[in-house]
Automatic annotation (TrEMBL):
<dbReference type="GO" id="GO:0000472">
    <property type="term" value="P:endonucleolytic cleavage to generate mature 5'-end of SSU-rRNA from (SSU-rRNA, 5.8S rRNA, LSU-rRNA)"/>
</dbReference>
<dbReference type="InterPro" id="IPR035979">
    <property type="entry name" value="RBD_domain_sf"/>
</dbReference>
<dbReference type="InterPro" id="IPR034353">
    <property type="entry name" value="ABT1/ESF2_RRM"/>
</dbReference>
<comment type="similarity">
    <text>Belongs to the ESF2/ABP1 family.</text>
</comment>
<dbReference type="GO" id="GO:0034462">
    <property type="term" value="P:small-subunit processome assembly"/>
</dbReference>
<protein>
    <recommendedName>
        <fullName>Activator of basal transcription 1</fullName>
    </recommendedName>
</protein>
<dbReference type="InterPro" id="IPR012677">
    <property type="entry name" value="Nucleotide-bd_a/b_plait_sf"/>
</dbReference>
<keyword id="KW-0694">RNA-binding</keyword>
<dbReference type="GO" id="GO:0003723">
    <property type="term" value="F:RNA binding"/>
</dbReference>
<dbReference type="GO" id="GO:0000447">
    <property type="term" value="P:endonucleolytic cleavage in ITS1 to separate SSU-rRNA from 5.8S rRNA and LSU-rRNA from tricistronic rRNA transcript (SSU-rRNA, 5.8S rRNA, LSU-rRNA)"/>
</dbReference>
<dbReference type="GO" id="GO:0005730">
    <property type="term" value="C:nucleolus"/>
</dbReference>
<keyword id="KW-0539">Nucleus</keyword>
<dbReference type="InterPro" id="IPR039119">
    <property type="entry name" value="ABT1/Esf2"/>
</dbReference>
<dbReference type="GO" id="GO:0000480">
    <property type="term" value="P:endonucleolytic cleavage in 5'-ETS of tricistronic rRNA transcript (SSU-rRNA, 5.8S rRNA, LSU-rRNA)"/>
</dbReference>
Length: 183
């Protein structure tokens, strides 16, 4: 089944468009197997309703933003025709629609399979985990160095207090020696 399927790449997803809307739009042209949209973050959308200049309700919605996406059609022929016919056309059908100024930027990916997309995601996860491990080990080294210096400073303070209680003249000399050794 995967050999007969075709994948279309969407290079730009308009703001506030989600996978459900994409599925609704593209399911008109043919059956869709899978959709994947690459998330980039969240946006706050504040909706304020005014009634005679008094704010009635204030609703805050968090909507997920996407940078790019992939759509797998069940038939390769349909994927090719959708990419060719809808590329560089307006998204909205009405003049006053939400997406009426946005254009589709579609490309049919020849010899590209859904498994390639999964491999890419797995590779990014491995790289991310490696970065986290190296960062954690670096932080542990920093922590141990700080704790070692803290122990040394406490030891120096204890020696200084002991020497001060004795009243020795060699406090300054020994303090200078200890501070130069700890660096």
């Amino acid at each position: 089944m995967e050999r007969k399927s075709g994948i279309v790449y969407i290079s730009r997803i308009p703001p506030h468009m989600n996978p459900l809307k994409i599925q609704r739009i593209f399911s008109r042209y043919g059956q869709i197997n899978r959709i994947f949209l690459q998330p980039i973050g969240y946006s706050l959308m504040i909706n304020i309703r005014n009634s005679t200049e008094i704010v009635r309700s204030k609703r805050i919605h968090e909507t997920k933003l996407y940078s790019e996406g992939w759509i797998e059609f069940k038939k390769k022929k349909i994927a090719k025709s959708v990419a060719f016919s809808l590329n560089n056309t307006k998204i909205g059908r009405k003049n006053r629609g939400y997406y009426d100024h946005d254009f589709w930027n579609l490309k049919y990916l020849r010899k590209f399979r859904w498994s390639h997309l999964n491999e890419k995601a797995a590779h990014h996860n491995v790289i991310r985990e490696q970065r986290l491990r190296t960062e954690i080990s670096w932080m542990k080294k920093q922590n141990t160095a700080f704790l070692d210096n803290l122990d040394k400073s406490r030891a120096i303070d204890a020696i200084v207090k002991r020497k001060e209680s004795i009243g020795s003249e060699h406090v300054k000399v020994s303090l200078l020696r200890l501070s130069s050794c700890s660096k």
